[in-house]
Amino acid sequence: MKCLFIYNPVSGRGKIARRLGYILRTLGEKYEVVDSYATSGRGDMVRAVREAAAGYDAIVFSGGDGSFNEAVQGLCEAESMPEVGYIPSGTVNDVARSLGIPKSIRRALKVVLCGENVQLDCMKINDRYAMYIVAAGAFTSATYTTPQSQKQRMGRIAYGIEGIRKNLVFPVFPVRISDGVRTVEGESVFVVILNGKYVAGMPLNRDGCMTDGKVEAALIRQRKKPNVWHRLRAYFALARLFLFGYRVRERLIDRIEGSHFEIETDESVVWNFDGEKGISGKVVVDVLPRKINMIVPGGRKI
User: Fold this and answer.
1) How many CB atoms lie within 10 A of CB 102?
2) CA-to-CA distance for 207 and 130, rounded, in angstroms?
3) Whole-angstrom Cα distance, residue 156 to residue 166?
4) Beta-carbon contacts of residue 18 (< 8 Å; ≥ 6 apart)
5) Cα angle at 215 between 256 and 233, to 5 degrees?
6) pTM of the model
7) What is the secondary structure of 74-94 as a DSSP string?
């Protein structure tokens, strides 16, 4: 079997690049041929994964949630689907947390060598893809506007500082979500669609499943022209959502679940796909059931 190891050389403060020899030797215990490729910038992971899918039996990649998103883009654009392994090396690593993949290089490699293959769902959003989250509104821009140098120096705290600096006053925007049967609409400050269990390192969707063919959506309602009290209530609702999870009882939160959503909103609203800047305005979200052939820890509910 042939394996290609693709890694982001700047993710995780360069730790993967320093351990490259060890990683390749370890992968050689499972695969007969192991090649490596270092990405050179944003979008390069997409191309590398797409092109490698036709010539390799396995792709193992490393990076953060943004790199995972790029890998999913490449896999979904490819004509064939190799088995996929992952060594997390980002700031938060929400996908790895959802899958139970350890951040330790040694232990993550053990999963690749000894884990089991599971067919994971992912999401298609218009002509783009995401693995675990599609979101818009309060704090969602922080994951892609926080400078890399700040993330390396401060870790996940950097996201909090950036979010407070740019999003302390939650912008209000109209939103209409329909699954073809039920429709939820109104003014909102935060919309999220979840396929994974963790967001920002917190178990926002602890009971979520990445193999059931559906996703969970939630929006936090707000008045069109909120006063100070209304803004405080929105802060409180968002805090409760992240602290207590998707099922928390909160009157400002509307929920809807399914495998297909049409979401209408203003063109000024920018969507966040797995921590990366996505598209703006109206989106159509479809679950692609059991699309990604992922190696995960054995015996774990995903």
Assistant:
1) 17
2) 19
3) 16
4) none
5) 45
6) 0.90
7) HHHHSSS--EEEEEE-SSS-H
Residue 28 is encoded by which pair of tokens?
A: 């050689």
CA–CA distance, 116 with 41 (Å, rounded to integer)? 31
How large is the angle between the packed helices 20-27 and 105-114, nearest 10 degrees?
20
| Residue with more model confidence, 41 or 20 | 20
**Tens digits of residue pLDDT in 221-268:** 999 999 999 999 999 999 999 999 999 999 999 999 999 999 999 999
CA end-to-end span of the chain: 26
* Amino acid letter, 111: V
Within 39-159, strands assigned E span 58-63, 83-88, 116-125, 128-130, 133-137
Tokens of 53: 């899918």
Nearest-10 crossing angle of helices 44-52, 65-77: 40
Identify whether the C-beta of residue 83 lies closer than 8 Å to the C-beta of residue 117.
yes
What type of residue sits at position 294?
A: M
Among residues 14, 16, 144, which one has the least CA distance to residue 6? Answer: 16
